[in-house]
């Protein structure tokens, strides 16, 4: 519970507690705090048991930590019944992206040799400008169109 409190911070808290409550009342305050924490833990465990009983026998191994999305996904990915590992291992994103890049640039990749052959020209060369337009000439600006 107090894993991130260092020794100097702990000493500071003890000194502050002694100054605020005094040495006479400090043991009683500590007992009250521990009793309250114990009751809160018992209440939360009782609530968890009630929820598990209400959900039924199919949720007997339900853990409330599973409600955290990261924990839930990690648990489902480790589940062998779904076969997600085979799907994840069978999908090679780098290979797919290389094939798309080759198709866009007009090159033929090793894995796409049986696929539809695109023309040998790059896609950029397929788009032609009108022959009458000069390269440095801009199209006319139409203020109403924008």
UniProtKB/TrEMBL annotation:
Q: Which UniProt keywords apply?
A: Cell membrane, Membrane, Protein transport, Translocation, Transmembrane, Transmembrane helix, Transport
Q: Does the keyword Lyase apply?
A: no
Q: How does it assemble?
A: The Tat system comprises two distinct complexes: a TatABC complex, containing multiple copies of TatA, TatB and TatC subunits, and a separate TatA complex, containing only TatA subunits. Substrates initially bind to the TatABC complex, which probably triggers association of the separate TatA complex to form the active translocon.
**CC per GO annotation:** TAT protein transport complex
The UniProt entry, under HAMAP family, shows:
TatB
InterPro entries, sorted: TatA/B/E, TatB
Lineage summary: Bacteria, Bacillati, Actinomycetota, Actinomycetes, Kitasatosporales
Compartments, record wording: Cell membrane; Membrane
What family name appears in the similarity comment? Belongs to the TatB family.
Q: Could you tell me which residues belong to the region Disordered?
A: 104-146
Major localization class: membrane
The record gives the membrane topology as:
Single-pass membrane protein
| Xref: NCBIfam families | PRK01371.1-1, PRK01371.1-4
Q: Cross-referenced Pfam families, in alphabetical order?
A: TatA_B_E (PF02416)
Q: Which domain of life is it from?
A: Bacteria
The biological process GO terms on file are: protein transport by the Tat complex
Q: Where is the composition biased (Basic and acidic residues)?
A: 117-146
- This protein's record includes keyword ATP-binding: no
Q: Sum up the protein's function in the record's words.
A: Part of the twin-arginine translocation (Tat) system that transports large folded proteins containing a characteristic twin-arginine motif in their signal peptide across membranes. Together with TatC, TatB is part of a receptor directly interacting with Tat signal peptides. TatB may form an oligomeric binding site that transiently accommodates folded Tat precursor proteins before their translocation.
What Gene Ontology molecular-function terms does this entry list?
Answer: protein transmembrane transporter activity
Name of the protein this chain belongs to: Sec-independent protein translocase protein TatB
């Amino acid at each position: 519970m107090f894993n991130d409190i260092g020794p100097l911070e702990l000493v500071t808290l003890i000194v502050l507690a002694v100054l605020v409550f005094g040495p006479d009342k400090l043991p009683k305050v500590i007992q009250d705090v521990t009793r309250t924490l114990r009751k809160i833990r018992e209440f939360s465990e009782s609530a968890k048991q009630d929820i598990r009983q209400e959900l039924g026998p199919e949720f007997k191994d339900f853990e409330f930590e599973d409600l955290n999305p990261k924990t839930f996904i990690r648990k489902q990915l480790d589940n062998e019944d779904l076969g997600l590992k085979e799907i994840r291992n069978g999908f090679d994103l780098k290979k797919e992206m290389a094939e798309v890049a080759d198709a866009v640039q007009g090159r033929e990749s090793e894995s796409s040799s049986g696929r539809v052959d695109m023309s040998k020209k790059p896609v950029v060369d397929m788009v032609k400008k009108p022959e009458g337009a000069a390269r440095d000439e801009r199209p006319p600006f139409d203020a109403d169109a924008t």
